[in-house]
Amino acid sequence: MLMSHSRIGNGEARRTRAWLRIACAGAALALLAACDKKPAPAPRAAIEVTVMTVTQRDTPVEYEFTAQTQSSREVEIRARVDGFLEKRVYTEGSLVKAGQTLFLMDTKPFEATLQSARGELSQQMARLSVAKANLARVVPLVAQNALSQKDLDDATGSDKEAEAAVIAARGQVRTAELNLSYTTIKSPLTGLSSFARQQDGSYVTASATGLLTYVYQLDPMWVNFSISENEILSYRDQEAKGLIKFPPNRDFEVAVILADGTVFPARGKIDFTNPAFNTQTGTFLVRASLPNPKGTLRPGQFVRARVYGAVRLHAILVPQRAVLQGSKSHFVWVVDKDSKARQRVVEVGEWHGDDWFINEGLQPGERIVVDGAIRVVADTPLKITDAPPAAPASAPAAAAAAPAEPQRQGGETQSLARRSSDDAVTH
């Protein structure tokens, strides 16, 4: 009986210990499972951005080209007679007036030649007087048959010969007077003088060493730049498609930007486009004429020519900071109706101040991210603030502002050469 009770007690103790082990194991497993669970990710914070609505508008555009100034009238000052250069009477590099004396040559040989010519003229005039007096005597005698017809013919011939000799002598006098006047060499125009090519005392000849200096007219000043054939064809195509509009009669305005970035105060007009295509450079020459009354512009300066007058029709402009560069193309972030961003590939055109023309990829009414675009991730919530509206572009405003970045060359203005190129094919 006692053994029976002892066995029963031992069995219950074993069952109790087994249940305890099972309970501990279950608790341990539950603890391990709880340790393996990761905390749920916190929701992403909304990215703060500014957004603008895409619109279309006609936008005046201007384009820049590397250019060089040229005197509108460059004159060689040359000796017109052979002789010794006696004196230079102008200051090299100074502004000279039209009719101002620049050089003096030795006049003595020319004065002597003039005196001889005048003496010859006097002799011939004396012979003419004798011939006329003789003719006057012969005429009535022939009428009375006192002299033969041959005598009359001889007297008449002598008279005509004397008249011709007088004319020739007068020509010699005039030639001598001109040669004497050529010894005083004057400027034919008002302009900037160059250095003297011949020094005082040099013997100069009109054919070989007659170049003495140059005079450059400064007002107006020409500005030359070139247009490539590809650009002309491209913008002709855009004009045909109605994307670009040019001013009537290709009446473009040109401003000049100097080497230090300052804008020359006066504007000019394009007055010539070369109809001949340059096969070496693949370009057409375009020339603008600008007033330069103070002589600020000098011949040979390298400047930038900014041409106004073209209008891009129904253009889409977005700020440059809204356009990002991907691995293969440019793109923008387009905001959908749920205020989430979607990446959109776009085709960009030329720069326009701080904006960029978008040729393809955007439609009016769409919203794009402007500020904060670099932080945007696809399908991330956005905290949106509307961007301030852009001021309407205008040619005068664009002209007054200095360019913050160099503009792309290429430009519609170059289609101004279309007129001349059309002439070459069929300013």
Automatic annotation (TrEMBL):
Residues 386-427 are annotated as: Disordered. One of its GO terms (molecular function) is transmembrane transporter activity. It comes from Caballeronia humi. Residues 392-404 have a biased composition (Low complexity). Pfam families: Beta-barrel_RND, BSH_RND, HH_MFP_RND, RND-MFP_C. This is RND family efflux transporter MFP subunit. Its main location: other. Residues 220-307 form the Multidrug resistance protein MdtA-like beta-barrel domain. PANTHER family: ACRA/E-RELATED COMPONENT OF DRUG EFFLUX TRANSPORTER (PTHR30158). Residues 73-209 form the Multidrug resistance protein MdtA-like barrel-sandwich hybrid domain. Gene3D superfamilies: 2.40.30.170, 2.40.420.20, 2.40.50.100, Helix hairpin bin. It is found in: Cell envelope. Belongs to the membrane fusion protein (MFP) (TC 8.A.1) family. Residues 113-183 form the Multidrug resistance protein MdtA-like alpha-helical hairpin domain. GO terms for biological process: response to antibiotic. Residues 315-373 form the Multidrug resistance protein MdtA-like C-terminal permuted SH3 domain. One of its GO terms (cellular component) is plasma membrane. NCBIfam families: RND_mfp (TIGR01730).
